[in-house]
Amino acid sequence: MTNQQLWQAILGNLELTLSKANFTTWFKNTSIIEKSETGIVVGVPSAFSKEWLQNKYHQEILKALKQLSPETKEVKYQIVSPSFMPSPAANKEVQRTQTARQPDNQTLNPKYTFNTFIVGSNNQLAHAASLAVSKKPGSVYNPLFIYGGVGLGKTHLMQAVGAEVLKKDPNAKILYVTSEKFTNEFVQALQNGRTENFKNTYRTVDVLLVDDIQFLAGREGTQEEFFHTFNALHQNNRQVVMTSDRLPKEIPAIEERLVSRFEWGMVADIQAPDLETRLAILKTKAREKNYSIEPEILTYIAETIQSNIRELEGALNRLMVYCQLNNTRPTIEQVKSILVNVITPPKKRGVSAKKIIEVVADFYNVSIEDLLKQSRKKEYVNPRQIAMYIIRRELETSLPSIGEFFGGRDHTTVIHAIDKIERHMKEKSNLKQEIELIKDRLYLT
Amino acid sequence: MKLICTKENLRKGLFVVSRVVGVGNPLQVLNNILVKTDQGRIKLSSTNLEIGVNTWVGGKIEEEGSLTVPARLINEYINNLPTEKVTLTSKDTTLNVEADNYHTNIKGLSSEDFPLIPQVADEPFAKIDSQEFRDALSETTWAAAINETQPEISGIYMAFEADKLRIAATDRYRLAERTAQLLEPATSAKEVIIPSRTINELNKILGTGKGEVGIYFSESQVLFKFDETEIISRLIDGAYPDYRAIIPKEFKTQATVPREDLIHALKATALFAPDTNNIHLEVSEDGVIKVSASSAAAGENEALVKGKVSGIANNAIFNFRYLLDCLNNLTEANVVLKMISDASPAMLVPEKRDNYLYIVMPIKV
Question: What's the predicted TM-score (pTM) here?
Fold first, then answer.
């Protein structure tokens, strides 16, 4: 039994007999620092806990110890400083900055670099922009705003920027956060009254990477804080990179001044990869995993999975595991049956007209009632028509019952809506993308 | 436990101990004061597990015993009593307080659960006059860093060197150092860092009287004994920055100015630097010091202070708070401002006293 396990076991015993307040106050930050044949030395954080353990809990600790290891008879207590303090003043500066920096930089996933990113016509622009930014952070495109659908490599590109900057200057301070983490930390800082710390962390970085910025929608306080952070960084020529699943101006409930800042530098999109790119991705992944596979099979996978690179990788993994388990080389027929779940996912599961309306309402930041009632305001009509379109396409619900669902509208209204959306989708690529996103959400959640 | 005590004695004792309580600690008993009979006197103790305070007050003990009672409640209650004498009687965990027409039962907790305040060595390490100590502390402690991210400089540095005690505090942008005289040479040379909170409590306690302060050390603890009060605290682990290396030896400009005049000029000018706190100090060779500030929102201002200048003309930008902190805590009529350039540390010292110095970094814009 290691010292730690032994101490945990003793604490487990003591915890039962003491009140929670007593237990946490006196046994916090204690540990066994030395163990010999006959006894143990318990490290305690302060003279107060030393006095207390020695005089009040000594018998209990000894008893618990004897149950676990009968040969030890002696317990001593020693004060140990809770944290390591660097001693000479000269070293301090270095020590401090290093410890402060590491955790920031550690949030980067080492897998995500430019080397492992496969460039195709769909993401050429985003890749080139990211590469340029990583070469001269803060001076070329600031901010860089990357948008695109789920699983297309936004996070990969963004982290690659961080990794590349870090490679050139290991002392650079890179901070990668999701906008959710940003919000949480901000809220926490407010609660603890430590906004100074929060500001210091965010406003002193060299490169700030914020993932999924669209989740700032509707959070006004956080948006304001982000606005100031952004300004502070931008003014000092620090690089900001953001990703989102849509264009800045299409993010609902986000302040105009933020939108205009997001569009300030460079806005680059990542589209779903074309067949050649998908094939290239599959080949690279297979090579990475040292897995040889017939080109026809790869082509088959690339042809059938069209939108999402994560799914592409998932399909390949599935195939690999299957073949390893059964020790076979797959034929096309087998592949089809193995991948049946991945390729035609059980889409209709749990999706109802109500769910679709909910997701659409949430996406456009309107209420469900707004979609169902008779209002003909533009901001309600468009989402309503999109919801009708998606219900029709996904659930194949009959036109009259869709009309019924939307507050007793005529089936011709529904026909008009669907026609209009289809027409617009051909004309405007961003509408098409929006609908893809809504579908993604529908099946992801 | 039964004891009779004058209200004044009890009030003084409670004043000393009632601030050091563990607010927010899940352990309820830390919010309480321990009242205990101790060799014919009444011992009051409190702790927040970082600092512990014991104080003894005189009274008549009729029955030995001990009990803990909520610090704030008893302190405020005793403060509000109009009577001369108080009788305290404990029954189980209730403290009965009788004073003429006031009859009270205060719910307490058993003294069994009250933390043991660590014992510190019997022999004093050093002794110092309380007035001297208090002066030295009030001229330095406010310069320590508030932020505890760098624990070493969040505390107050004390170096015992023969019969001198060197006290320093810094937050990396400024530094205050004062050398105090010990009553007799310390038993050996020693350097320690003491938490600011402990020193603040000590400073308040020193304000209650005059006399001799005994300083005791043991494993990672320090104890100050003054009058009938002990304050025990942990020490901060770590090495204090070698600040003496940054104290400039020579200056190019020396300006002697009336302290009050400079304070007035700074306070008035500071109104015109509401966001930055930056004020501009220009020392000219003819003995005029120009204090000025401007901001887009408030406007601009300049104030002239007359003094004596030797050396070359000089100017620099400072955070006015940093200057006022020092000036407000000095008592001399004149202070000497020494400068090198607008990017080198400047020094403030009282005129005709060489045991104090204050270094402040100018602000680069």
Answer: 0.55
Same topology between domain B2-113 and domain B126-244: yes
Upstream peptide bond of A143 is cis (omega within 30 degrees of 0): yes
Q: Is A84 on the interface with B (CB under 8 A)?
A: no
Identify the three-state secondary structure at position A331: coil
The shortest CB-CB distance from B239 to any of A20, A49, A88 is to A88
**Least confident window among A93-97, A111-115, A147-151, B280-284:** A93-97
| Cβ–Cβ gap B237/A25 under 8 Å | no
B145-163 pLDDT per residue, tens: 887 778 888 999 999 998 9
Question: How confident is the model at residue B172, as a pLDDT?
Answer: 87
CA B303/CA B269 separation, integer angstroms: 7
pLDDT, tens digit (0-9, with 9 covering 90-100), for A64-91? 888 877 777 788 888 886 543 333 333 3
CB atoms within 10 A of CB B66: 17
The pLDDT assigned to A82 comes to 55
- The Cα–Cα gap between A268 and A262 comes to 11
Cβ neighbours of A25 in B, within 8 Å: 25-27, 30, 49
* Cα–chain center distance at A201: 20
CATH architecture, domain defined by A353-444: Orthogonal Bundle (1.10)
Contact yes or no for B115 and A48 at CB 8 A: yes
Query: Mean of the per-residue pLDDT values for chain A?
Result: 81
Q: Tell me which CATH code domain A105-270 carries.
A: 3.40.50.300
Query: Domain A3-79's class?
Result: alpha beta
**Chain A residues closer than 8 Å to B239 by CB:** 85-89
B239 to chain A: closest CA residue? A87
| A 22-51 residues with CB < 8 A to B | 22, 24-25, 46-51
The answer to whether residues A304 and A316 touch, using CB atoms and an 8 Å cutoff, is no
Distance from CA of A62 to the nearest CA of B (A): 20
Contacts of A22 (CB under 8 A, 6+ apart): B27, B113
pLDDT of residue B129: 94
**In the prediction, which pLDDT does A371 show?**
84
Nearest-CB residue to B115 (from A52, A81, A92): A52
Fold of B126-244: DNA Polymerase III; Chain A, domain 2 (3.10.150)
Q: So where are chain A's domains?
A: 3-79, 105-270, 275-343, 353-444
A88 touching B, CB under 8 A? yes
What does the alpha-carbon distance between residue A215 and residue A236 come to, in Å, rounded to a whole number? 26
CATH for the stretch B248-360? 3.10.150.10
Q: B142, B74 in Cβ contact below 8 A?
A: no
Reply yes or no on domain A275-343 having CATH 1.10.8.60. yes
Q: pLDDT band at A106, cuts 50/70/90?
A: low
Structurally, at CATH architecture level, domain B2-113 sits in Roll (3.10)
Q: Which one-letter DSSP state was computed for residue B215?
A: E
Q: Which two tokens stand for residue B112?
A: 């069994």
Q: Residues of B with CB below 8 A from A81's CB?
A: 220, 237
Nearest CB to B118 within list A22, A51, A87:
A51
Q: Do B220 and A89 touch (CB under 8 A)?
A: no
Block means of pLDDT (10 residues each) for chain B, 365 residues, are 92 90 82 92 92 92 93 92 91 91 92 86 88 93 85 91 93 92 90 93 88 89 91 90 90 94 93 87 92 88 92 92 93 93 92 92 85
Contacts of A271 (CB under 8 A, 6+ apart): A122, A123, A148, A149, A152
Judge whether A87 is closer than 8 Å to chain B, CB to CB: yes
Q: Specify the 3-state DSSP secondary structure of B242.
A: coil
ipTM of the complex: 0.74
The residues spanned by each domain of chain B are 2-113, 126-244, 248-360
Residue A241 has pLDDT above 50, yes or no: yes
